Amino acid sequence: MGVGGFESRTYSAQDGLCLFYREYGDHALDRPPPHLTPIVCLPGLTRNSADFHELALRFSSDRRVIALDYRGRGQSSYDPRPQNYHAAIYASDLLHLLTATNISRAVVVGTSLGGLLAMSLSAQRPTVLAGVVLNDIGPNIDGAGLDNVRHYLAADLRPRTWDEAATMIKGLSLAAAPDFSEAQWMALARRSFREGPNGDIRVDFDPAVAAEFLKAESVPDLWPLYGGLRHVPTLAIRGALSDVLSSAIFDRMAEIKPALVRVTVPNRGHVPWLDEPECVAALDAFISNL
To answer: Is pTM, for the whole model, over 0.85?
Structure first.
């Protein structure tokens, strides 16, 4: 197993761009893969595979866990054509990942944007989905939440020190995690920024990702994608303080899909980090029952 409990892997997207993913579990050791269904983890808009480290370690003793860095994030290459930073290309990258890793069926854990991509699989390759976890995302995105996302993306985050980076992240995200300790803010900063070759600290994504998102004028109707999960076991997680997934939409999701498993995480907005006790219990029960 590589340093940190995972192997660093890369594959080529449809346009040849080099994309990075983490692989946890026995398969990464070239042992026969376990029989349990693998887990594929998809992060939020500007996030990366490091967000799923604790979850991956918890499940990797008996199954493969794959966590992706989208193009322009983390250790994946930045796209020379910024217009490629949109959902249709991400979905294509995801399909290529499944091919590259020889995964024909998986539990897909999607945070925010990752949850939308998980829903898109129900239309593009429905037989892949053994189960889906939607982390603080639904088929309707609250306007206040979109405004806050735009505010975060428009912020000029150029910390001079790691303490300053943690302070910046805390200032932007305190409402979503009011009980975070200083150590947790620092850990989040370490997953949100990278240190450059000259010691400069910068956000761990291509600034063009933010620029392209800020150009977008509207969000399409996502209810048809959610309808594609009608027969797929699904766990929906909502932060009780979320400004992206409202309680009304959360309830409507359950009305449309009565078998939906739901959990609300106290003291979390957008997004729960999946290490909260409520998330751990819900994920363990949901995945073990598949």
So the answer is: yes
